[in-house]
Design brief:
single chain; 305 residues; 7 helices; 24% strand; globular
Length: 305
């Protein structure tokens, strides 16, 4: 039995509670498993359990997991639980540690994202992982908070959904699927001990969780798509070409700058062309004679006669 279960066992009297002690052997699985148990104890919460190193690493999620990436759900880290606890559904007697009704709300397989080392991620305080369950699917992250805001000794984390194909702006949509994934019972039926017995998942049986491979592949493709999109250089905005000012524009600008009244473009161009043409030489016409000069020859001729 793993030594990390000492804390778990010290808090329970197995002669009074039906909770597993951790002595039963569980079956092997192709991937590490996860279980979420709805627990109506002093305060209603959802226990997230991730199989790792022969035990369930466990967090009590106070408001339950959300599908909305904007939600940050408080997840209080609790003691490791034995793997056979993953099949437990029933009632813990009042007065016992965690007394109340327990439902197997969801279960399936999980993997850390990429090649991340789980122990190093937990020590660092940021574990990114993918769930392949029957109610919860896709990418999540657990982020450890710096300290308990109330000054206690609790080891507080935040459970956050990543944006992917299984995200939903209606964060509590999955929580409304409020029946056991193992027995189909409600919390009331479990408390009363009525309805079907839960089908085993950790200890054997034919119960099959959601096809994990489909989730792994979908998340991997989404991550690759995001990486390719961020790697592409952004398109440069087209630069407008500068056009050289035409004779019309230059003439208009010159007239405006000199303070003269601006002419219409065509007239301004014509004026500019006229100024640029070489001037023609003026042809001098003979000077006109006065009336007295014209009559002088006639008077001279008369005198001779």
């Amino acid at each position: 039995m793993p030594t990390s279960l000492a804390d778990y066992r010290s808090k329970r009297d197995f002669e009074k509670t039906e909770e597993p002690s951790g002595s039963r052997k569980v079956r092997t699985a192709p991937y590490p498993r996860f279980v979420i148990q709805k627990h109506d104890a002093t305060r209603l919460h959802y226990d997230l359990r991730l199989e790792h190193d022969g035990v369930f690493k466990s967090w009590a999620v106070t408001k339950g997991p959300s599908l909305n990436p904007k939600d940050k759900r408080l997840a209080v880290e609790v003691e490791d639980h034995p793997l056979d606890y993953g099949d437990f559904e029933g009632t813990i007697p009042k007065g016992e540690y965690g007394g109340g009704t327990v439902m197997v709300w969801d279960r399936g397989y999980w993997l850390p994202e990429g090649d991340e080392d789980i122990d190093k991620a937990l020590a660092k305080g940021e574990l990114k992982f993918v769930l392949a369950g029957e109610k919860l699917k896709g990418s999540y992250v657990l982020v450890r908070m710096k300290g308990d805001r109330y000054g206690g000794k609790r080891n507080n984390w935040l459970l956050i959904k990543h944006r992917d194909d299984w995200a939903n702006d209606d964060g509590d949509a999955a929580l409304r699927e409020d029946r056991s994934i193992a027995s189909g019972r409600t919390m009331e039926q479990i408390a009363n001990g009525t309805g079907k017995a839960p089908a085993p998942f950790m200890l054997g049986g034919s119960k099959k969780a959601f096809d994990a491979d489909a989730v792994w592949h979908s998340v991997a493709k989404a991550r690759q798509r995001d990486a390719e999109t961020s790697a592409k250089p952004a398109r440069k905005a087209p630069v407008a070409r500068k056009r050289s000012p035409s004779a019309t524009t230059a003439a208009t600008a010159s007239a405006t700058a000199s303070g003269t009244t601006a002419k219409a473009p065509r007239k301004a161009a014509a004026a500019a062309t006229k100024r640029a043409a070489p001037a023609k030489k003026a042809v001098k016409s003979p000077p006109k004679k006065s009336a007295a000069a014209r009559s002088a020859p006639a008077r001279k001729a008369a005198t001779k006669r």
